[in-house]
From TrEMBL, chain A:
Protein name: (2Fe-2S)-binding protein
Domain BFD-like [2Fe-2S]-binding as annotated: residue spans: 23-74
Highest taxon listed in the record's lineage: Bacteria
TrEMBL record, chain B:
Highest taxon in the source lineage: Bacteria
UniProt xrefs under SUPFAM superfamilies: FAD/NAD(P)-binding domain (SSF51905)
PANTHER family in alphabetical order: FAD-DEPENDENT OXIDOREDUCTASE DOMAIN-CONTAINING PROTEIN 1, SARCOSINE DEHYDROGENASE-RELATED
UniProt xrefs under InterPro entries: FAD-dep_OxRdtase, FAD/NAD-bd_sf
Pfam families for this protein: DAO
Domain FAD dependent oxidoreductase span(s) in chain numbering: 6-351
Keyword Oxidoreductase: yes
Protein's name in the database: FAD-binding oxidoreductase
Species annotation: Fusibacter paucivorans
This protein's UniProt keywords: Oxidoreductase
Length: 110, 373
């Protein structure tokens, strides 16, 4: 969420749902239930969820699951998805072999 | 108006660890964080839990943390912080490198740390993946690494469960004094009264300390890190080099996390948030490949930058403030705060409950900085 958040707000108890076992982040195999529980553990921002569970940290960098994760977190917090700030996109955006990335300047390869 | 026994400004690993240890003692604690939990260096560092290579003034804190706190931290916080106590290799390729490492090693052994110089054969036995160009290393078998993001969030989670009130997205503006004593902090939202106030806000601590006339000499320095895709399990040591070309480790996940710099990052830091530079990750990659040719085909999936609150004398300020009773400061960790954070949390708990810390921290006082003439 953007803006001020009191992390002691009462979200109510975590109630297991039939689809909690559904894989949401395919790269890192994180389920819907894990994401919902993370919110109850106090992870209220997309970045905290990502650092806690590795959602969006895999090979696709969240290009597949980012919107789904956001919807799940917003629902658990009972807020609109709009108020949740996206996690920062990180270079190089597509996985690049080390030997290629290292070759950025002439004469600087190994 | 809000009230608690202790108020902490800064929701990084230091603030969260201190909140945890204070609340474990039954104190009521409020933490105010301007952005989100672990926004700064706490989530951006290389994860080293090192004793070797440390300044003698902070080495005893690191040794205490490694001996007494890190090994049981996952159990205590009921969450795996991915701590490995499998040693640190600091690698050398030239005689000049060996000389640098010998100096570091001599200073650490004088303080009782088990660290020694080893030759190429022993290095290869510890880590068979290294380049044949490596001619030696310093080896500290009790060093290691942990996951900084999970450690910070584990302290936060447990502290929150113990009743600590965390508020994020709220900005502390100034400290309020009454009859010379720090009694409250004014934020952009409310005023928070407390018997003890801790400022642990990294480089930005100075913005708040200025309101009571204090200043810690530190610079904001950019460093970068990168992570590879998951690789087969290769080794568990923490690694660095004599020339600091790079440092890092293989995580539980299998990815390699390496930090480093291009050498000129410090002059590219003038943004409102840490931004990666095009030349830095390639520089780190060349550094890694020079020692680990086997990783040349590993794919980099992500790079990031973070700021170090670099102190004028390269060790932190961890101190009560004599002329402002009620105020405690912990900042200027200079890029090596993560490894000592559990011990610092306990030291700060002692300082704020009028006990003598288990490690002497007189050399880390806030008023140690003097004009040179």
């Amino acid at each position: 969420m953007n803006g001020r958040i009191d992390r002691s707000i009462d979200l109510g108890p975590y109630v297991a749902a039939p689809d909690d076992g559904m894989i949401i982040c395919r790269c890192e195999e994180v389920t819907k239930g894990e994401i919902r529980r993370a919110v109850h553990d106090g992870m209220f921002t997309i970045t905290e969820i990502r650092r806690y569970l590795r959602t969006g940290m895999g090979l696709c960098q969240g290009q597949t699951c980012a919107r789904l994760v956001k919807q799940i977190v917003a629902k658990e917090l009972d807020v609109s998805p709009d108020v949740l700030e996206d996690a920062v996109a990180r270079a190089p955006f597509r996985p690049v072999p080390m030997r290629v990335l290292a070759n950025e300047a002439e004469g600087r390869t190994r | 108006m809000q009230q608690s026994e202790v108020l902490i400004i800064g929701g990084g690993v230091i603030g969260c660890a201190t909140a945890y240890y204070l609340s474990k003692r039954g104190l009521s604690v409020t933490v105010i964080e301007k952005k989100q939990i672990g926004e700064g260096g706490s989530s951006r560092n290389g994860g080293g839990v090192r004793q070797s290579g440390r300044d003698p003034r902070e080495l005893p804190i690191a040794m205490y943390a490694v001996e007494h706190l890190w090994p049981s931290l996952s159990d205590e916080l009921e969450m795996d912080v991915e701590y490995y106590k499998k040693g640190n290799l600091r690698l050398a390729k030239t005689d000049a490198h060996l000389k640098i490492l010998q100096g570091l090693t001599d200073r650490a052994t004088a303080l009782g740390l088990d660290v020694r110089m080893i030759g190429a054969d022993e290095v290869k036995a510890i880590n068979p993946y290294l380049s044949d160009e490596v001619i030696g290393a310093s080896w500290c078998p009790t060093d290691g690494h942990a996951n900084p993001m999970l450690t910070t969030l584990a302290y936060y989670r447990k502290a929150r469960r113990q009743g600590v009130r965390f508020i994020t997205g709220e900005s502390a503006q100034r400290i309020v004094k009454q009859k010379g004593r720090a009694v409250a902090v004014v934020t952009d939202y409310d005023t928070y009264y407390a018997e003890r106030i801790l400022v642990a806000a990294g480089f930005e601590s100075n913005d708040l300390l200025a309101s009571v006339g204090l200043f810690v000499p530190m610079n904001r320095i950019l460093l970068e890190a990168l992570v590879t895709e998951a690789q087969p399990k290769m080794f568990e040591q923490m690694l660095g080099t004599a020339e600091a070309d790079f440092y890092g480790h293989q995580s539980t996940h299998g990815s390699f996390v390496f930090g480093g710099s291009s050498g000129i990052d410090a002059y590219t830091s003038d943004f409102d948030r840490p931004v990666t530079q095009g030349m830095t990750a390639p520089s780190i990659c060349r550094g890694i490949m020079g020692y680990f040719p086997v990783l040349a085909d590993a794919k980099i999936v992500r790079t990031w930058a973070g700021w170090i609150d670099e102190c004028a004398d390269h060790v932190p300020v961890i101190s009560n403030v004599d002329e402002v009773p009620g105020l405690t400061v912990a900042c200027a960790f200079t890029g090596h705060g993560f490894g000592i954070s559990p011990a610092v949390g306990q030291i700060l708990t002692s300082l704020m409950t009028n006990e003598t810390p288990m490690v002497n921290i007189d050399a880390l006082r806030y008023d140690r900085f003097k004009a040179k003439i």
